[in-house]
Amino acid sequence: MLWDYNRLGLTLRSHPLALLRRPLARQGYSDGAQLALLPHRRLARHAGIVTGRQQPGTAKGVTFLTLEDEFGSVQVIVWKKVRERFRAELLHARLLGVWGIWQREAGVCHLLAHRLVDLSSLLGELRTQSRDFR
Predict the structure, then answer these.
(1) CATH number for the domain including 107?
(2) Which domain holds residue 10?
(3) Which of 8, 90, 99, 101 is the most exposed place for a label (fewest CB within 10 A)?
(4) Rounded alpha-carbon distances, angstroms, from residue 64 to 83, 99, 113
């Protein structure tokens, strides 16, 4: 798996987070499948590999993240105040833990971030790459 990710950026073997699921669960992080079942406005924690960061000029300081785990992608919204407080985690984490509020409205789901935690050390030597747009 390490060779696949380091050479290709993906693997057809187990997803890296499937191998980390137990330690993440012990820290209270839900996987994407569990998160998808939560009702609107529920407190939630989720961890995923950062695959995208976007901060459009028209978004008034809001940053949008895409996190990936073994069940797919989770969209995260980071308001300006949270971005300023957790700037290092937001910009540098490869594996990011997000504490926040799960929102589900009209079929659109996302996690509204209140706290960001850099969990990259759990990935060891696994290299990941995020597509970042500003």
Answers:
(1) 2.40.50.140
(2) 2-133
(3) 8
(4) 10, 15, 10
